[in-house]
């Protein structure tokens, strides 16, 4: 027989204006809050090595244009532009080892 939660163990969780009664775990209570990504930055989502950079500073790109090739886990992954814009800064070059979260480039 499972224990019935008391009012002291239940907490309110609001998602999209809907309120839920739930128990929070310690991991949930100590989590980092979500921060919206900066649309000007293109970040690495998996560690790897930069094989090729297809853009340069000042270059104008359209959504879907290739930016660079990242080798990760023996696979080549083409990173494409998430939107139209001008490259403000390149933070990597071919041969660089990159980590998750590292900035590849910045848009103006």
Mind explaining what this structure looks like?
This protein is mainly β and 108 residues long. Helix content is 4%, strand content 44%. It has a domain at 41-107: OB fold (Dihydrolipoamide Acetyltransferase, E2P). The longest helix has 4 residues, at 26-29. It is elongated and about 55 Å long. It starts with 10 loop residues before the first strand and ends with a strand.
SS strand fraction: 35-45%
Report strand order across the widest sheet: 3-10-8-5
Tally of DSSP helical segments: 1
Task: Encode the helix/strand succession as letters.
Answer: EEHEEEEEEEE
Give the overall form. elongated
Count of DSSP strands? 10
CATH architecture of the domain at 41-107: Beta Barrel
What's the rounded overall pLDDT mean? 90
The helicity comes to under 10%
CATH superfamily grouping of the domain at 41-107: RNA polymerase II/Efflux pump adaptor protein, barrel-sandwich hybrid domain
Low-pLDDT residue spans: none
Largest sheet, if any? 4 strands, antiparallel
């Amino acid at each position: 027989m499972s224990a019935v939660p008391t009012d002291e163990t239940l907490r309110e969780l609001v998602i999209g204006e809907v309120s839920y009664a739930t128990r929070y775990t310690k991991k949930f209570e100590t989590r980092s809050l979500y921060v919206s990504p900066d649309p000007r930055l293109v970040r690495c989502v998996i560690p790897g090595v930069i094989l090729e950079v297809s853009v340069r500073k000042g270059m104008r790109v359209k959504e879907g244009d290739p930016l660079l090739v990242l080798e990760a886990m023996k696979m080549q992954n083409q990173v494409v532009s998430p939107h139209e814009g001008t490259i403000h800064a390149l933070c990597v070059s071919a041969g660089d080892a990159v980590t998750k979260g590292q900035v590849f480039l910045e848009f103006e």
